[in-house]
Amino acid sequence: MKNILVCLMFYAIIVPFAAKSQASLHFRLGSLEPTKYDTKSVITLEHILKNKRLTTSSENIKITGYSFSLLPDGAEFIGPYQVQGDSLTDKVVSEIRSCRSGRICIDHINYEAHHEKFVDKVDNLVYKYRKGE
Q1: How many angstroms separate the CA atoms of 74 and 48, rounded?
Q2: Residue-wise pLDDT tens digits, 18-67
Q3: β-strand partners of 117
Q4: Is 72 a domain residue?
Q5: Which of 19, 29, 54, 119 has its CA 20 to 30 A from that of 44?
Q6: What is the dihedral of CA 60, 66, 71, 72, to 10 degrees?
Q7: CB-based contact 55:28 (threshold 8 Å)
Q8: CA distances from 81 to 25, 53, 57, 60, 96 (A)
Q9: Is residue 19 included in any domain, yes or no?
Q10: pTM (2 decimals)?
Q11: What domain range is 124 assigned to?
Q12: Are strands 61-72 and 101-113 parallel, antiparallel or unpaired?
């Protein structure tokens, strides 16, 4: 009987909280779709620099910051970098430019929705890039 009460308390407390999360949101850099870990899909560094703003699928969401790491080809992870607001800063752009090619992996996104603050850990927001020719 005690186990049943624990399970009911779990569903009464945790499940509504999980349902309140913004699981259906889709984030991306500007109009760029993530390339994830697909080895065939590559965007140029110039595309990233034209799409420096992190966007979402909902108009009611305000992105307040995010973190990301760089994975240069043939090297170790660099970062994480913290971004305040929704756009890549000049300092971060300089770091991205220093890598000829690699991946940008966005890790955590901070945002506000309906006067509440959320932090989402994202696993599939990855952009494989190379410098344009």
Answers
A1: 21
A2: 334 445 678 888 888 787 655 667 888 888 888 999 998 888 899 999 99
A3: 112
A4: yes
A5: 119
A6: 90
A7: yes
A8: 22, 15, 23, 26, 11
A9: no
A10: 0.72
A11: 25-130
A12: antiparallel
